[in-house]
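Reproducibility note. Readers wishing to regenerate the assembly model reported in the main text can use the exact inputs given here. Chain order matters: entities are listed in the order in which they were concatenated for prediction.
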Amino acid sequence: MSKKQMSRRGLLKSSAAVGVTLATPTIFTSSAWAAGYTNEPKGKTVTLGFNVPQTGAYADEGADELRAYKLAVDHINGEGDGGMLSTFTSKALKGNGINGKKAVFVTGDTQTKSDAARASAKRMIEKDGAIMITGGSSSGVAIATQGLCQDAGVIFMAGLTHSNDTTGKDKRANGFRHFFNTEMSGAALGPVLKNAFGSQRTAYHLTADYTWGWSQEGSIKKYSEKIGWKTAAAVRTPLGAGDFSQYITPVLNSGADVLVLNHYGRDMVNSLTQAVQFGLRDKQVNGKDFAIVVPLYSRLMAQGAGENVKGIFGSTNWHWSLQDAGSKAFVKSFGKKYGFPPSQAAHTTYCQALLYADACQRAGTFRPSGVGAALEGFKFDGLGNGPTEYRASDHQCFKDVLVVKGKENPSSKFDVLEVVEVTPRAQVEYPATMLGGNLGPYNDGA
Amino acid sequence: MRNSSMSKNDLILLFCFSAAILAGPIILAPIGAGYPDLLQKFAIFGIFALGFNILFGLTGYLSFGHAAFLGAGSYTAVWTFKLLSMNPLPAILLATLMGGLFAALIGFICLRRSGIYFSILTLAFAQMSYNLAYSVLTPITNGETGLQLRQADPRILDAALGRDYGAVLPSSDFFGIDMTGYPGFYFCAVILIACFFFSMRIFRSPFGMMLRAVKSNQNRMNYTGLNTRPYALAAFIISGMYAGLAGGLLAVTDPLAGAERMQWTASGEVVLMTILGGSGTLLGPVIGAGAIKYFENIFSSFNEGILMKAFDFLPESLQHIMVSISSLFVGEGWHLTLGALFMLIVIFLPGGLMEGFNRLRTWLGNRTGGGDGGAVPDTAPAPSVGGD
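Running the prediction on these inputs yields the following structure tokens for the assembly.
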């Protein structure tokens, strides 16, 4: 009994504790929870969240993405020369922001790590009030961020992510991708590789060990075996390994005559450079010239690898030397602001920002389900890829795919790739059910 | 009965700590840190650092592999979500146990050596775990992509209780309270307070005294016929359990576990947190964890636009100069700021931020109250970093 007695100090303490506990629920009512959907913009501005790698193996891509986003925000707000807004077939955007609100942006560093990417995306959603998140080099990061955005109830416009899983196995209703995927790369590269190297080849894969690498390896295997090639081995290398010599030496003794580098960013620059230094390209195996294939190419990487890319085949989403009106307008506008041509990463992120803004404008709201409905099945042109469609069943854009080759006689340090073939959309399209996954319902948040 | 052995100062400290943590959202809002995700990180890494401090601060054993326990805890928690239930309680319980188990295994081997050899051994084990998680154990860990929840997961307990999450991906909930946002923070905060209390009890116990003795002179302990290894191992396991718990909580607030949580940089981070805050002190590690997470999340988000606004009171030419200088230290350059700060602290305040606070308090005490400085409660017993 006596132990239960409360001292004066105890009473003071516990009443203070009760006070703190009672005060806490007021926090819940003060912030975003009161809105109709997550981060509903109430003021004169709308905040977009740009989540790109500023450090790590994909930092170059990330820096270019950020440049493109800034350019897109300028154009949406009616500053600069308007870029691809003038060639875009949808004329909903008037250069006065989105739904009459000025577009502003916040940025985050994904560090090419899922954890860091989710932390910075959460910061932008919870603290800065971002209405959508876009960005991501690296499919692992994109998938992790897409899942987060689905949970938080904001739209995710995927940036540079090439894995099938982003709009396949791991697709989410709130996520949309403009970039192509490994399935399309494989389908486009297959016939070109057959023409260039014949059907009696043995391939050796070096694969970045994460979702994109696995997906890329699977697709290239699928389509190279379709044209009669054999696969000698597929070796996984850690992301950002830096030194690939230990992985390249065994290639020489494997009996393979084609090396497929399922690497991207600095990984690809390093592995390709080392493969060339090891003299692989001067070798003759099985009476054939040894060949190297880099299924996913970008100008930034080609530039990084310098001389070594000459004559090497790959696929790309877009290239600055394209001559359609959209591409020309974009290259001009980007070049004017930054002094050099944009990469495919910059292109896809610029398009995503524009497509999002346009969808909001057409829907007349920022509500994720409304914006999503405006994007689903949306057909457009004038963004540099020819006629394009956002397929409703998996939120993946379908368009022509470019097969490119390292240029033998570059005219400038940016002119490193030449387009070998434009594979039409019909040839790379596949049924949405093929890759599995389930979009699920839209989440508007609460 | 417990209270009888707790000094008044400890009670006050515990109470102030609890109040400060629970009022975190209000206190931290002015510096831009009052949003749920960062608050959760503060609490979780506070727990991680508290646990690390029990090992490093008390016994002086510098482990460079604590991230392995954090990662193991995360994976365990996500698997618990997948297989058993979305309730966080089984997840953190199993995560703590797994952290302890892992620590027992690694500690049993590593504690045969001390000093730098111990550090290297733990580092090696952590890197091994990282590489296992990254590639070899991909079926369990899902490699670089990270382990994620799926709609099709069995969730036996939830299924047995007739709980159906429908077509959406479930998120963890504590008997109906969603573990994201502020509720998630309060869940972590309550656990942090419990962990702080437990750590305080260890600091004040004879066991804690024994650990300090291990730090100050292990040879002498051995000569007196005392086997110190069980004590060190116990400290290692406890601190591993703290790390496992922190890893579990990371998964509770965000059901995803990636291998990078086990990387050596993550192990290094907790060492930094503890030293920055003040190793061997009770509060220091929590403060250090908060400081580092703050830098990582807030400083890294400053871009030129924000800097321009901050310096817009200056004339335009000066504004541009100031922005270009200071932009080196924010955004992607936040590591630079952290490095500089860390150097300053280690050089001028070897006892960490806590030493700074104590010095400040003594100085203020001397200035206002005359000889009152000596009466300050000693919450920070003479810290020494690398001094012995």
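We highlight two features of this model. The CA atoms of residues 205 and 260 of chain A lie 5 Å apart. The longest helix of chain A spans residues 344-363.
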